[in-house]
Each structure stands twice: as structure tokens, then as C-alpha cells.
């Protein structure tokens, strides 16, 4: 049994992969991450359409980006996740949105069947398929079966959810062994993946290690990444559900006893158990790590290490812009910002910005060519058009309706410039409140003879739209109620692609001070709406004025490129885990 600590070299200030390898060599550090002992990343959700898996939002985009960044940095990483045999798409008919279920086959996306693993539930042996897709130094190891269902099917706390979570945890852990891997570290992307750490603890404790030793070992090698603000909002399960789905899979009696003690009034909150099984814990932005309100079983407040999410630049940044960042020495080979990058940003003058935006607009037009708006119109924008966008899941706290609180004012801002406003975002299946809100927005828009063909709703928000809009619009609007966005990554795509950011000061945006972008504040929704309109006017004016445009875009990048960089994020994780 290998119990010595794992070392990994801190990657700061290393310019390229050769330099990185040389540094590891120099320091004679044992890179304990190896192809056979990879970094393992556990997630119920991954948003990676190219590989056939569609997530629900930011959590899944983050998972896909983490793997891609690891691939580029040469970090051996195995991502363990379900492959959902069906997924939902949103369709718009006569101004109303509907969900449509479509089936997906893993074979169409380059996954290969490996073998079966079994878990026990409800007195039966459940057969799971292990399928795998390998890349250079990373892989996606997926658990699936024909009736696995879709992401977030059933209510949180339902039997089916628990079945999916237990399948990923116990099934995924068995799958790792099947392909001959031992996890150097287990990163749990939210508490739904708790059962993976439990499977490991159970294996160690039932294979000769005493329980206490097994617990210490598991804790030291498990990182729980929290994306939720309040523990009260977390899913919980009953003991009776655990008796059907979880206990039958446990071999060790002390592990059962340990789990028993996590129940309060016959119910178990996964967060409570996850906090106990993971010594390493992180939050996804500085603000979120500070305010996430979690307590351990003893009632002590849990500390989270801030590791702000980042994006994979190669996926999300227009190639022309990325090339510029690299040639100018703004980003290194890993797409992490170089130390002196702010000085280099002066090369990004308004002429360049406009040139890049014209290239981005082409991409946007291509994406929109197959995605009509609510009127059935196929949109095509010229380089001279001005576009605002709001692209995010339709959930309450993100406030998609705020820009429509004063339609007369909105029109007064858009009309003189002939500006457009593109809105996209899926409503979570079954969320009647937000379905109604969307219908109301569309009614407001339809009732105004300017807005009706300058405000466009595009259905079925996905990665392609996110990319097209980041690359092709002029200003992006992000309005979470302050304190409710854990990080957010759409705004990162906008900043990196040279859009002006109009935002409240929340999530990862609050990693830097509010002077760095077009900030929206206010004590009430009305005040915030007023300020939003003022900021929209400023954004239009800035794009009319070369000096102002350069100034604002350079300032945004100087403050946020390090935040946005996925390579920076992975370096932060490696430093936290192995130093
Ligand atoms: C980037 C992205 C997200 C993340 O959205 P946030 O609201 O910023 O968390 C969600 N969905 C898709 C399709 C994305 O591309």
C-alpha cells in the first residue's frame, strides 16, 4: 500500500511543456501522477457535445474544460461520468417552449465498450456498461445502461437520482480497476459524486487496512469541490433509500457504521458525509469560497480553498484572438497569462479589436444560419451591427427579465443605434415559473414594433451558441442577484473574446474589483435596471470611440485574463493538492 505523499511540481512561471518537464527533472520531484495513477475527476454532468455528452450548464462545461486543459498540459487525468442514453432539447413552437427527448448512442462518439460492472440495488444485481474514450493523456470513462435515463431525471432526492449517483460512484470505482487505474487523487465535482469516495473507503477498509487508516488515506486524497452556496439547498436521502441502494454495496462493517452516524432524523445530506470524507475542499471563486455556508457534523463552519473556475481558451476563444495572445506574449503555451502580460495588451488597439470582432461575427452568423429566432427569422448580422447578448440558463437568480423591466427605455437605447439584443437560455425541465417568465418576455417583445424584430430569442441554448455569441457580439449582459452566482463562466468567454462585460459584482467577476468592467449595482431591482440601461448606453458609445474601446477592453483583460485561464485553474488545483 502506497501511503507516502504525492508531489507534483508547481507550474508557475514555466513557459512550455519542455520547460515544465525540465523543472520536474531539476527538482527531482516524483511526479506521482502517472498514466496508471491519474488525477481522477468525478462528475454527474459533463458538457461536451463533441463527445456526445450534453450537460445542463456551467458545472458540466467546467468538467469538460478541466479535461481539455489537462490534455494540453500533459496531466494524466481520467474523467469518470455517466453516459446518458437520452437528453433533452428545447424547441420553440408558437412562442412557447417545449422539451423534446432524443436518444444518444455512445458508439457514435468514439466510445468503446470495455466490460460490465455490477452494483446491488433493491435486492437485484444491476448490470452497468463501462465505456471509454481515450485521448493522449486523458480519458473519459463512462458508466451507462439502456435505462440510465437523462441528466437530472427525476427530482433531486428521488430513487432514480440515487441510483444514478450510486452507479457512478460504485460502478465508476469498479470501472477504474477494470481498466487498471488507481486514483492518485479523487476530485468530486459536487456532492452527487460522494459515492466514489465511499467506494474507495470501503475497498480499503475491507482489504486489510484498519478503518481509521483507511479513512485518513481516503480523506487525504479526496477533494470536494463545492458549487452551491447554502447547505440547506442540498439534496438528502432517507435511510430507507440508503438501505435499498447504498448499504448492499458496502462490504466493511465499520464503514456502514460510519455512514449510519451521518443520518440526522433518518435523513442524510450528501454534503454532510462528503465534508467528512474529503479533507481537501474548494469553492469555485474567491467570493464563493468565502461565503459558502457549510457546517461539519460537529457544527464547525467549513473552510473552502478558493480555486476560481477557468475556461479552456482553445475551446472558447476565437482562433485569431488566441493566436494574437500567443504571438504577443500575452499567454504562454499552456494559455496561462505571462507575468508581464498587462504591458503587452497595448498592442490590442481598436483596429485589431474591430478586425477580431468582424471575424467573430462570421462565426456567429454561421451558428445562427440554422437557428431561427422566435419569429422564424434566420438572422444575419453585418460587421456594423451592434449586438447585446444575454445567454444563460433561465433560472430565477440570473434575472433574464431584468432588461425588460422598462421596455420603453430598452427601445430608446437600442433604436438610435439600430442595435439588437439576443437572448438565449434553456428553462430547466418542469420549471413552470421560468417558463412563464420567458413567455412574458416574449409577449413584451412582440407588443413593441421595434423590439419585435430587434430582440431575438434563440431556442435550445448550447455550446455552439455560447461560442458564437461570445465571439460575435459587442456587449454581454450578466445580472445574477449578488451572492447567488458561485462563479459563472459565460462571462469569461465574453471577456476573452473582447466583448464589453456589463455585470453585477458576483461569482468569479468579483475576483477583481468592480472598476474593471461595466458594473451594475443598486439597492433594488429598479435601481439595478436603471444602471443596466446606463451601462448599455455606455457600451454603445464605447464602440463608437476608438480610444474608449481600447481602454475598456484592455482594462478588462488586464484584470481578468488570469482569472479566465483554465491553465491557471489547473495549476491552482495541482498546487493545492500536491504542495
Ligand atoms: C459556458 C456555458 C455555461 C455556463 O454558464 P454560466 O451561467 O456562466 O454558469 C452554460 N451553458 C453553456 C451551454 C455554456 O456554454
Question: How would you sum up this structure, described in words?
Answer:
This protein is α/β, with parallel strands linked by helices and 579 residues long. The chain has 20 helices and 19 strands. It has helices at 17-27, 58-73, 159-178, 194-206, 211-220, 239-245, 253-260, 270-277, 286-291, 313-316, 319-327, 341-344, 350-368, 407-417, 432-446, 463-472, 490-496, 525-542, 546-564, 566-578, and strands spanning 39-42, 77-82, 86-93, 96-103, 112-121, 124-134, 138-144, 185-189, 222-226, 236-238, 267-269, 280-283, 305-306, 387-391, 420-424, 455-458, 475-478, 500-503, 518-519. The strands form four sheets. It has a nine-stranded mixed beta sheet, with helices on both faces. A six-stranded parallel beta sheet has the order 16-15-14-17-18-19, sandwiched between helices. β3 and β4 form a beta hairpin. α3 packs across α4 (194-206), α13 (350-368) packs antiparallel against α16 and α17 (490-496) crosses α19. It is globular. Mean pLDDT is 92; it is low at 1-20 and 22-30.
Helix/strand/pairing class, anyone?
alpha/beta
Largest beta-sheet characterization: 9 strands, mixed
The small-molecule ligands in this entry are:
pyridoxal-5'-phosphate
Strand order of the largest sheet: 5-6-7-2-1-8-9-12-13
* Secondary structure: number of strands: 19
Mean pLDDT: 92
Shape annotation: globular
Cα distance spanning the termini: 21 Å
Question: Into which percent range does the helicity of residues fall?
Answer: 25-40%
Low-confidence stretches: 1-20, 22-30
Radius of gyration: 24 Å
The DSSP helix count reads 20
Residue share in β-strands: 15-25%
